[in-house]
Design goal:
Chain lengths: ~150, ~100
């Protein structure tokens, strides 16, 4: 084996597990069997992509964290986002909010401020007019959690 | 309950227009206790809806996961000048609403 071939083979080996990892990421960042999720999807499959959730990587205070989400969609009468659901991993209320949109929205983009009980991953689940579900997520480190007990 | 709606001074016909609303509300989670240890009852804005000339264009179901004094920004496409009306209801059944005129060029 030539040196050049060896380097190419070694590089592909080194890259192989990373590629497999990338495929894992393509799986929706949320468990479709979760009862809170199933109450929304009714068992429909969830695909990763089309939904972009923006959160600051680090939040000093969980009481108010800026959140922005957008869904890729033409927002026409035939093809639009019906609703976007926000799920939390660690909050006592896991289904944080549901935003109902339609063709009159024009753009599937919502911004708000959310409460977080600790560092976690937040998942945005979009329901399209064709009945498909798409999910996107963002992780945030919270220094001071939103108070659950008296403080 | 005081609230403020912000819409662009002039909207373009058929173009998505941002609508911002901020409502003065504690969004009490129901997990806190007062000074003598009694739990404070949950009181959050449960539902917020937006009508444009009487037609619903946006609705949100909220929970304690939304920060106090909720701020929400969304988009809508105005086809003609009209009145944007946002209304909401909290756990105690208190309703609120706020209107904003929209001028379409």
């Amino acid at each position: 084996m030539k040196r050049r071939e060896f380097i190419a083979a070694a590089a592909s080996l080194a890259l192989a597990p990373r590629l497999a990892g990338a495929e894992d990421n393509a799986i929706a960042p949320i468990d479709p069997k979760d009862p809170d999720v199933q109450s929304v999807t009714k068992g429909a499959p969830i695909r990763a992509g089309r939904v972009k959730l923006e959160l600051p990587p680090l939040a000093d205070n969980g009481n108010s964290v800026a959140m922005k989400l957008s869904v890729e969609s033409p927002m026409t009468a035939q093809d639009h986002v019906r609703a976007v659901h926000l799920f939390s991993e660690r909050n006592p209320v896991r289904h944080m909010a549901a935003f109902h949109l339609g063709p009159k929205s024009g753009r599937a983009e919502i911004a708000s401020r959310i409460r977080l009980a600790g560092s976690q991953k937040i998942i945005a689940l979009a329901e399209m007019s064709d009945g498909s579900f798409w999910a996107g997520s963002a992780s945030v480190v919270v220094t001071l959690s939103a108070c659950l007990d008296e403080s | 309950m005081a609230a403020r709606i912000q819409v662009p001074p002039q909207a373009k016909r058929g173009e998505p227009m941002p609508v911002r609303i901020i409502i003065q509300h504690p969004m009490e989670t129901g997990y806190r206790h007062d000074e003598v240890g009694h739990p404070i009852k949950r009181n959050v804005i449960r539902e917020l809806s937006c009508r444009y000339d009487g037609v619903e264009v946006f609705r949100a179901d909220l929970s304690s996961g939304i920060a106090a004094n909720p701020y929400i920004q969304f988009y809508t496409v105005p086809e003609a000048s009209g009145v944007l009306e946002l209304s909401w209801i909290d756990d105690e059944g208190v309703r609120g609403s706020e209107r904003a005129p929209v001028v379409v060029a």
